[in-house]
Amino acid sequence: MRTRPSKQAGIAIITAVAIAALVAAIAGAMAFRHSLWLRQVANQLDMTQARVVARSAVDFSLLTLLDDAKQNLYDGETDSWRIPISNLPIEQGMADGKIYDVQGRFNLNNLLETDPAKLAIYENAFKTLLANAGGSPDLLNALADWLDEGSNVRNPGGAEDNEYMAMNPPRRAANGPLFDVEELRQVRGFSDELVEKLMPNVSALPYPPSGPASFVNVNFVSAEVLNALVPQISLSQAEALVAQAKKKPFQNIADFYAALGSQQLTQQLSTSNIFSIKSDYFLTDVEARFGRVKVAYRAMLTRDNSSSARLIWLRRR
Fold this sequence. Notes:
Layout: H1 7-71, E1 85-90, E2 93-101, E3 106-107, H2 116-132, H3 139-147, H4 161-165, H5 192-198, E4 202-203, E5 216-217, H6 223-229, H7 235-247, H8 253-260, H9 263-272, E6 275-276, E7 281-290, E8 293-305, E9 308-316
Parallel strand pairs: 3-4, 5-6
Antiparallel strand pairs: 1-2, 2-7, 7-8, 8-9
Helix pairs in contact: 2-6, 6-7
């Protein structure tokens, strides 16, 4: 004769099933968390390795520039350091790198020049670059106030601490050289759109208190910057000189002056001494990939001579 299971037995079975399901859920959650932890550890290791590779790529850029200085007395588009490195295999990762000259651009910190004749050249050049980018020439005074150590506001368009503290967010004028072109966005009147338009033609190279201002490398200068610095020549003439330098870099500054075709202009530029065929400052973009991680950096480098090169700054891209 069959008997029905007791009510207690049914509850026991249900409880056992529930406990088994709970244990399975907990075990699954623990396994997932453990897997996630292992992946996080792996990603952290990959990140560390990628950063080391990227930093090594920056060091390699310094060595490349030093090697070039031992072989060449000038810098131009045909130099070996202009060749980018792409998909270079490094153990389980890959690395990319490219070096750019920045001394063919207009150095905004040259507006700190103390020689009146040179300062006039730089100020007029920057006004031209502003106009080409759709900016007001009054912005020259805004940048000059940001750079200089004084507290007197230049008019029209200047601004010092009182004006900046009234802005949102409030800030103070730097009263010193720009560290990076990106800092230009903090200067009153310089919109993001304007800065983006200026970016290809300007730089923020160190300006030591004792000077001198940085030279402009004629082998890398753009037609816009050359025309701004030498308004005596037309934009089309500047474009022709730039094309000539790209095809065959000027190996001495006398060749560049001769290409201008004007003895009077050559005399003026020789006196102002603002051009060169050498570069001391460079940007390098490096990217490293390791596992699932990718890091990208931009660095400014300086090369003092054939035996000395160093990193000025490094930031994430």
